[in-house]
Design a protein that fits this description.
Elements lengths: L16 E4 L10 H28 L3 H23 L9 H31 L3 H35 L4 E4 L2 H39 L2 H24 L8 H43 L7 H50 L5
Antiparallel strand pairs: 1-2
């Protein structure tokens, strides 16, 4: 069963809300109001983005989610326009330019780079390396935004210090929700990659079994056992997100299944293929002899091999059916748990 990977959410790294000790009405005349003007534009951008994140996590309607993404892109453009038309503060363009650089980076990532990330998602199922590259791209994107946000915060403080503005840092409700979403995304990726490695190898194992390729079966079986044991070890040391271990538990259940499949069940399938191969040779040798050349020992040996083979076929079919049922169960459990987990922990925002 192929696991479809949901689009992981790009995150604007949180900016702390800045509350001025004194506010004036005209940004052109008061540095505090100037900070407010830029801050309000960026906050409107982040609100639209958080609304998109909420819709992506809580709504199954693809059109609605895409519409929210388009709204978020439009809000970035609106923010950029508002800051562009804001004149430099008394000839000082440093703070305004820092904000424009930050907003332009947000636009590039959420609009221009978005298509590239979606394309990578489409090929990420093709191999473990592709999936790891996909997750690393998202991690690198978030790191880029984090650095840009730190530069933006530094620009705020530099501007405030230069013009004697007293800033009080306060985490807003929006900021807290965005921070939770970022932590949730990182936690989910750590659990998911452990699941994906085994799930992908299991798909390869199914293909090898269908091909009756004993050599490939053995190679994939060893890789599956390795990833299952490594994943279980990671999950055992992973602190649950908001004390909810259901996602990690669902993943561990799957990994225990895969470990047993690799170490116990698959060798039974391999033994059957070897037995089948030997039976085919024995049958060919028996049929190569004419009736008068066959001894009673030959006939008894062949009949016993037929009975053994028939019993082997029955056992193989039962084992294969149990594996397929087990796969269906763990994949459904993982998919349902992942969806419920993201729905439960992603903050609602409109």
């Amino acid at each position: 069963m192929k696991k479809l990977f949901t689009v992981s959410i790009l995150l604007f790294v949180i900016q702390m809300g800045m509350i001025m000790s004194a506010k004036a009405q005209d940004p052109a005349e008061n540095a505090g109001a100037y900070i407010d003007a830029i801050g309000n534009a960026e906050t409107a951008m982040n609100k639209a983005y958080m609304a998109y994140i909420s819709a992506a996590a809580h709504s199954g309607r693809k059109r609605k989610v895409e519409k929210m993404r388009e709204n978020a892109v439009e809000s970035i453009v609106t923010c950029q326009t508002a800051i562009t038309y804001l004149p430099p503060y008394k000839g000082d363009n440093s703070f305004r330019q820092s904000s424009l650089d930050f907003v332009q980076l947000c636009y590039k990532i959420f609009n221009d780079d978005y298509a590239h990330i979606v394309n990578m998602e489409e090929i990420s199922e093709q191999s473990i390396d592709e999936m790891q590259a996909y997750l690393l791209l998202q991690e690198a994107t978030n790191d880029t935004l984090k650095i840009a946000n730190e530069r933006m915060n530094k620009a705020v403080h530099t501007f405030a210090m230069k013009y004697n503005i007293n800033l009080i840092s306060e985490k807003s409700e929006l900021g807290e929700k965005m921070e939770i979403t970022g932590q949730l995304s990182r936690y989910r990726d750590k659990v998911y990659i452990a699941f994906f490695k085994c799930n992908w190898e299991d798909n390869q194992l199914t293909e090898a079994v269908n091909q009756k390729n004993v050599t490939k079966i053995e190679q994939v079986r060893n890789a599956l056992a390795k990833y299952a044991k490594e994943g279980i070890a990671v999950l055992d040391t992973l602190h649950p997100f908001e004390n909810d271990g259901s996602l990690a538990n669902a993943c561990k259940q799957a990994l225990v299944f895969y470990k047993n499949e690799a170490e116990t069940t698959t060798p039974q399938l391999t033994d059957f293929f070897l037995k089948e191969e030997n039976f085919t040779k024995q049958k060919a040798a028996m049929e190569a002899k004419s009736a008068d050349q066959r001894t009673q020992q030959d006939v008894d040996s062949y009949n016993a091999a037929v009975a053994d083979m028939n019993a082997g076929v029955t056992a193989f079919n039962q084992t294969n059916a149990d594996l397929n049922n087990g796969r269906a169960e763990i994949n459904k459990n993982w998919s349902d748990t992942e969806r419920q987990y993201m729905d439960a922990h992603t903050p609602y925002y409109k």
